[in-house]
Design goal:
Shape: elongated
Strand content: 15-25%
Helix content: 40-55%
Low-confidence stretches: 215-221
CATH class of the largest domain: Alpha Beta
CATH superfamily of the largest domain: EIF_2_alpha
Oligomer: single chain
Distance between the termini: 13 Å
């Protein structure tokens, strides 16, 4: 009895048929480029906030740092709530259109508003994505303003916690989604992988003439 040697098959495919893999990658690259052209595009707004928690002289710095980190995580989680969205929307800035349906609105909000916490330094990096630069910048500013002015509604620390903007809101000069380089890279890789899978299916389940070139005796145990 014989078994097909997968390692030899893959080696043969990439060494002997590299031109076909190159063509498949280029075709997929072109399709990825077409997707970039027709896909909805979003600009990115960004603002960085610092969460400061006051502690007395009897508290050690490590405990205070951990408490501040927990606060940043709490604030980041609270940003997905309906109340937070309503407060951001009430800022009066132009934020664009949002769905009236609560489920659809939350889905888009979680996609377009990203909060990243920076451990040990108690910072929150807010990234917003909107179809226009103005909306992306306004959304970042509105989120930051809501956290600074009404953050106490979510962290519960009262006057012992303050939130400050340490990096003013800014917006990307070109669209940030979809990512051009990342989309083209994965497009090329997807084309190569798809062709490799096609050949492997032919070798293992089809009637390829090359299938018999990669047979080894079965291990007898």
């Amino acid at each position: 009895m014989y078994k097909k040697n997968l390692s030899l098959i893959l080696k043969h495919l990439f060494l002997k048929r590299w031109k076909k893999f190159l063509v498949a990658g280029v075709v997929a690259l072109a399709l990825a480029g077409l997707y970039i052209v027709v896909a909805p595009k979003d600009y990115r707004g960004k603002v960085i906030l610092l969460v400061i928690q006051k502690y007395d002289q009897f508290s050690d710095a490590l405990s205070a740092s951990r408490a501040a980190d927990r606060l940043t995580q709490t604030l980041a989680s609270a940003s997905s709530t309906s109340l937070f969205f309503q407060q951001v929307e009430a800022s009066g800035l132009s934020l664009g259109a949002w769905p009236l349906d609560e489920v659809a609105r939350q889905k888009i909000w979680q996609r377009d508003v990203v909060m990243e916490t920076v451990p040990d330094v108690s910072m929150i990096v807010v990234k917003t994505f909107r179809p226009s630069q103005v909306e992306a910048l306004n959304l970042a500013q509105a989120v930051a303003q809501t956290l600074v002015e009404k953050g106490s509604l979510y962290h519960g620390g009262g006057d012992s916690v303050s939130i400050r903007i340490v990096d003013e809101p800014q917006v990307s000069r070109s669209f940030a989604r979809p990512d051009i380089l990342l989309t083209l890279f994965f497009g090329f890789i997807l084309g190569v992988v798809a062709l490799a899978l096609y050949y492997l299916v032919q070798y293992f389940f089809g009637h390829s003439k090359l299938a018999t070139n990669f047979l080894l005796p079965e291990d007898k145990t």
